Backbone:
């Protein structure tokens, strides 16, 4: 637990970004709501700029999330606040870069990423427990996105007969 200072106003950039435009303030399943709120942006980036741009965007969001979460955690005094969902944004965008834009693949990306984020198999769970601070908040979801990325490539290869 870190020391709490003055609370952040809802319009503070760290709040807006960390909660992904307040989607993480949902009273139920903020990680799921944040992931859903991230999908339209990721789909638009993928559609107009391609998968490489989406990977770069996920890296940019990871860095922005690290910054905004560091401020949010310091000001709230909480290690891993549930309303911080920018980590889900970075992770699901990375996973989505391995999909295609069919409804089936988008749904599969969402379900696979959320499964990995919730269940936290190794190394995701290890990172969640061992890596602290804003980087710790971000890295476990990014690795969940990376694992989902690899699994989606395998699934696509099997489905389309490329393996």
Residues:
């Amino acid at each position: 637990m870190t020391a709490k200072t003055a609370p952040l106003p809802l319009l503070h950039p760290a709040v807006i970004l960390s909660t992904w435009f307040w989607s993480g303030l949902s009273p139920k399943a903020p990680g799921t709501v944040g992931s859903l709120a991230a999908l339209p942006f990721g789909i638009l980036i993928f559609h107009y700029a391609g998968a490489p741009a989406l990977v770069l965007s996920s890296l940019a969001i990871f860095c922005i999330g690290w910054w905004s979460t560091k401020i949010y955690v310091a000001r709230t005094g909480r290690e891993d606040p549930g309303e911080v969902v920018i980590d889900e944004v970075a992770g699901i965008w990375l996973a989505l870069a391995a999909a295609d834009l069919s409804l089936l693949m988008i749904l599969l990306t969402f379900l696979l990423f959320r499964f990995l984020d919730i269940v936290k198999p190794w190394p995701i769970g290890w990172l969640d427990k061992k890596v602290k601070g804003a980087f710790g908040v971000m890295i476990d979801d990014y690795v969940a996105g990376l694992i989902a990325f690899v699994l989606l490539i395998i699934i696509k290869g099997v489905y389309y007969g490329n393996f």
About this structure: The helical segments are 13-18, 30-49, 51-76, 86-96, 103-119, 124-130, 133-159. The chain has a mean pLDDT of 94.
